[in-house]
Amino acid sequence: MNTTLLSGMAPAPDWLLLGTEPVRALLEYACMRMANNADLPQGDGHPVVIFPGLAADRHSIGPLKQFCKQLGYSTYDWGRGFNTGPQGDVNQWIDALAQEIDTLVRPHEQATSLIGWSLGGIYAREVAKKLRGRVRQVITIGTPFAGTPEQTNAGWVFRLVNGQTPPVDRALSARLRVAPPVPTTSLYSRGDGIVAWQACIQGGRSDRAENIEVTGSHCGMGGNTEVLSIIADRLAQPPGAWQRHPDGDRPPRAASGLGQPTSMTASA
To answer: What is the CATH number of domain 3-266?
Structure first.
């Protein structure tokens, strides 16, 4: 799959996907509350750090954090509260964040899994590149690491909460496309109303990087039962023996309506 070609042509999601985000997200969270997680693999206690999306904080990732904790992981949020995006020099900002995460999980002997939602996924990927040997894997949820700010509907939100335009130049954009040196899973949805799904695809072939399509909204991914099931499976992968998910890198599903797969392709 040529991610450069895909992401380079993809516009931001259309108004219909964006406008229906709140309703679809509420439905996903309602389904989460009724889900039975008894059959999901239980955790080994290793630390998991979760990074929220833009203009979000610990409350938005609360259900995901509680889910990981119930599975048996030592779970933390990123510790910086409301996510307004990087401030000042991006490189220095990421360096400081990596040091804080390292300090946060230092009491644990086991390596850490990093989970990032949307912009938080970019933090998770970049922190993993800094903390070599301390990170077990990275899981991103609707994260546009392979795209541009124009391929999202969040640019105005970034300017509102940060006071500047997203600081992504050509060099930084090229760096963000490079996968971390650890097993990396990117979850994306054709029904995403905030981020162009093509911008969430890790390009190239790698034994340690995979793309997995899910069905749902951007704002509901943190409570999406399909997403949670995949996260449980990925977190349970033994250290040093990570294997690709059965749905990893399948071709994108044919879409019907609000980015939902047709019954034929969903069962393929």
So the answer is: 3.40.50.1820
